[in-house]
Amino acid sequence: xxxxxxxxxxxxxxxxxxxxxxxxxxxxxxxxxxxxxxxxxxxxxxxxxxxxxxxxxxxxxxxxxxxxxxxxxxxxxxxxxxxxxxxxxxxxxxxxxxxxxxxxxxxxxxxxxxxxxxxxxxxxxxxxxxxxxxxxxxxxxxxxxxxxxxxxxxxxxxxxxxxxxxxxxxxxxxxxxxxxxxxxxxxxxxxxxxxxxxxxxxxxxxxxxxxxxxxxxxxxxxxxxxxxxxxxxxxxxxxxxxxxxxxxxxxxxxxxxxxxxxxxxxxxxxxxxxxxxxxxxxxxxxxxxxxxxxxxxxxxxxxxxxxxxxxxxxxxxxxxxxxxxxxxxxxxxxxxxxxxxxxxxxxxxxxxxxxxxxxxxxxxxxxxxxxxxxxxxxxxxxxxxxxxxxxxxxxxx
Length: 397
Prior knowledge:
Elements: E1 13-16, H1 51-62, E2 68-73, H2 83-96, E3 102-109, H3 116-124, E4 128-132, H4 137-140, H5 153-165, E5 169-176, H6 184-194, E6 199-204, H7 223-240, E7 246-247, H8 248-257, E8 274-277, E9 282-284, E10 295-298, H9 304-308, H10 311-322, H11 326-329, H12 334-337, E11 347-348, E12 354-356, H13 360-383, H14 387-396
Parallel strand pairs: 1-2, 1-8, 2-3, 3-4, 4-5, 5-6, 6-7
Antiparallel strand pairs: 8-9, 9-10, 11-12
């Protein structure tokens, strides 16, 4: 029997996979495609959230005490479900919103299915859209391809054009891999001039070849390579684009200097409050831990709040802090990194202690480099100094 360790309502968010791992692309580095193997009895068309599961999920999620409820729809590729599925989502949300809560929806997509009809719907219902885009065509198409091997870049850009046409709010999720990480300014200038949005996330691709294995797939970004990538982009941003472009990891450091939460779970001391819901209602500890070991239950049998409060899940969240190596505890940039995401803690410290983040060298390089810049930026921001004046200062030093 699973044990509930508390009865208060632990805050949580859910990443929902209404079509499981089914996708119309076959990106070489995608960690989620293989999750179809959890359900060997199903074929691809069967990975579709039933109306009963969808309704129960929305009912429970809407019952959270928060005044603002945020739904996150991911995959696989959620647009494969079609617009009628998402119209149904809106209807069910409206039906259960009896207390006048603010309901937000976000959609993570590869954008290749987006057209005028999709864009009108997303605009009408105020969806925030996250689009996966790995840079200009020759960089994006290295790994983000169809099953045929054909690159997806042109179709992604057509989808983005539809979002821009209807003024849909969207941001860019850019995977940083071993191929595109050598071209930071090519990436930066492309996103700045061609992506149509000033909100970007740079997500490092890390894929170990086995449990407790320091070897990684050859598309994985190298730690020093990722550090160099971030530093070079930061140098340009700090001189020319403060207040114009939002880069998620830069925002994390700025938030720390302003005494605010990081805003990103992988840099918090503990985790365990961002869970994943599969197409059939199965609930897992995290989007990156959708496996039998981290299965919590099913929403048709238990409430999500009960599962969040399970001892298993509470320990999962606390382990991020309690298993942090002594090497990390003494690190001068621990306040920014906190060991990073547990999924990447599979190498050993210089002293042989297990549990060091694979990206440690890159994180340490980046955070150490930006500290004096961010310290000055946060001080001047608090004084109300215009961004143009701050950037002028950085251009002169």
